[in-house]
Write a structure and sequence with these properties.
The structure is a homodimer. Chain A is built from eleven helices and no strands. The first copy, chain A, is an all-alpha fold and about 210 residues long. Among the domains of chain A are: about 40 residues, Arc Repressor Mutant, subunit A, CATH 1.10.10.60; about 110 residues, Tetracycline Repressor, domain 2 (Orthogonal Bundle), CATH 1.10.357.10. In chain A, helix 1 crosses helix 2, helix 4 packs parallel to helix 7 and helix 7 packs antiparallel against helix 11. The structure holds a DNA duplex (30 and 30 nucleotides).
Chain lengths: ~210, ~210
DNA sequence: GCATTGATCGATACAGTGTATTGGACAATA
DNA sequence: TATTGTCCAATACACTGTATCGATCAATGC
């Protein structure tokens, strides 16, 4: 008999399974089997699968370490550490924003960020942090979704256009989306990093305008 | 025998079920039953449940009508019409951003937006639209998640603090999250509309700075 | 020391899921 | 008329989350 069962071991196992084979590989039976116990044993430690998913998310928050001096650096770091966590745990993109994050590690991240937001007035803190979080969640979801789509349509990840070229080419050939076609065909394409950072800078610039008002 | 079966009728039925009882009420069996056919019939029109979900999302895009003169109004309108769709179809919040949106109605929304973005240089269009979309998706997800949590913890939706007060009160009483506690306790609280619009304005302000450069 | 109670935990069971497969009815062809 | 091919419904499979029940075993009362 290995270490005794507890919430943390259950959550760690679930995270491992999700890292390896995606969120749909996380079933209570599989988690239980990986731990060498019967499925019903888990219900001594968690109330439902939903709670397990919440605990997994909070486990991911435990890896996030926002740092930096000054509000801009801190918010940027919050964004990047969240994005990094989603890269390490792609299933996080499916769960982020899906329900309020009130676990201890999520609150700890929030505490660290808020505590370092010098120069931001009390009433501005919530809207500012909420906006950055919203942007990051949306951006990370799209990024992971694109990554999966690329992976699904052959292992080519060189360029969007090459991957789903046939479909888009055909669609644009109908002439129904001329403006869109021009952008996709002729505009410069940023890579994932630059896209993320560019959007983040838009937001931080806008926040700066408010802050220093 | 009613109208003949087709994709559109299947999707409309699935959307109705999701509107009424949430996304987890959408099973192929239930959709089929509502249409008076056997479950397997649906596979003549859709390849999998995932495809049905994609079609539902594209169906929601069909209701979005971004309008306005000038890039700022258009982007604001895009944000608001997306948010409105998620209010009309809460399940949309669960699906938005989860996979690339390439259906005809989603592309049509993109076309409308891009076509109206006068004054934005070609290379800026994609990052700008992507940023607004990312923000909206994240913001809407959080908003819907909060709404559900409020609904779950009793029908009170007056104030966050009142709804999950006990848990937060207890947590803050530990003194581990002093900065967070101060913000939650003492800062002004915006309602959902203002929170959404404030964050959106941050982003649009930041975009404006770039555009007019 | 023995009987009884109470908690603990595994196995079983249930209702539901997405979807593969199979078999039969019917239309079109030879 | 015989045969082939197409369509569609029913059955079946493997799996899900979780309620329930029965047995095991420790602690308690006499």
């Amino acid at each position: 008999m290995p270490a005794p069962l507890n919430r943390e071991r259950i959550v760690r196992t679930a995270i491992r399974l999700a890292d390896e084979d995606g969120l749909e590989a996380v079933s209570l039976r599989k988690v239980a089997t990986a731990l060498g116990v019967g499925p019903m044993r888990l219900y001594s430690y968690i109330a439902s699968k939903e709670e397990l998913l919440d605990l997994m998310v909070d486990g991911a928050y435990a890896e996030m370490r926002p740092v930096g001096d000054g509000w801009r650096e801190v918010l940027r770091s919050l964004a990047e550490t969240t994005r990094q966590a989603a890269h390490d745990h792609e299933w996080l993109a499916d769960l982020l924003g899906g329900r309020p994050q009130l676990g201890p590690h999520a609150l700890a991240v929030g505490e660290t960020v808020v505590a370092r937001l010098e120069g931001v007035s009390l009433d501005d803190i919530m809207p500012v942090v909420a906006a950055v979080n919203a942007y990051v969640i949306g951006a990370v979801r799209r990024e992971i979704a694109e990554r999966r789509a690329e992976r699904a349509t052959g292992m080519d990840e060189r360029r969007w256009q090459a991957a789903l070229g046939p479909y888009l080419e055909r669609t644009f050939a109908t002439g129904r989306f001329p403006a869109l076609a021009t952008v996709v065909r002729d505009a410069a394409h940023l890579d994932a990093d630059d896209t993320f950072l560019t959007g983040l800078d838009f937001l931080l610039d806008g926040i700066e305008a408010r802050i220093s008002r």
